[in-house]
Structures are given as structure tokens and as C-alpha cells.
Amino acid sequence: MRRGNRQSGITFWGLLVVAALVAFFVLLFFKLLPPYINNAKVKTDLSSMASQPGAATMTRQDIINALYRRFEIDDVSYVHLKTDLHVTRPDPNSPLVVQIAYEVRVPLAYNVTALLDFNDVAQLGAK
User: Fold this and answer.
1) For residue range 43-74, what is the model confidence (pLDDT) as tens digits?
2) Rounded to whole angstroms, what are the CA distances from 12 to 8, 17, 104?
3) Where are the domains of the chain?
4) Which end of the chain is more exposed for a tag (fewer CB within 10 A), N or C?
């Protein structure tokens, strides 16, 4: 009886495709990680500002100044407080609602760009 010598494993072309897919997802991960870390800092700064004493009586300019100081310390980028910050009070008896909505464009390769939308909300003086 004749036994064939069977080879098993991945071919060179198969290995090349797998390596290209892995490289693509590693590139995507490292390109998109900084905006998500930045957004985590924005969320942390927004919630810590909302929980500070006297937050319920702050004006829009006080909120901008407080967030600007926190953003400077945490090195937050991509956020422009003059345009991205929205302060509302749904009704006279409710707490202030502070919303930071911004988008980040991340160039991936050539003319391919990822657009990330972030929307963070906090209530000042909520019980």
C-alpha cells in the first residue's frame, strides 16, 4: 500500500492575506485609540466638574473656564469649548444640562478618513 506524503499548513499567499488583515486592524487600532482616550478624559473632566460644590449656580462662562482649566491639565484636544459646549435648562426647576458634542476626523490612508462622533452629557447640581 502506498502512503502519500501529505503536507499541511498555510501557503505563502494565505500567510500574506492573514498578515495584511492583521496589519490593517493594528493600524486601525493605533489610529483610533487617541481620540477614544481623549473622549474618556472629556467624560472624566465633565463628571468631576458636575460634582464640584456650587456647580448648579455656574454660568456658561464659569463652566467654560472650569472645563478649560481641566482640559489644560489633562491635555485634551479636539474640543473647542466655544462651539462644542451646549448648556441648557429644560425647565426652571431642573438642573443645568451640559453637553459637549464634537467630531474627530482621523486620516487612515490616502483619502480614507474615519469620522468619530462624540456626545457627552452631564447634569450640574443633580441630586
Assistant:
1) 999 999 988 888 888 889 999 999 999 999 99
2) 12, 9, 38
3) 33-124
4) N
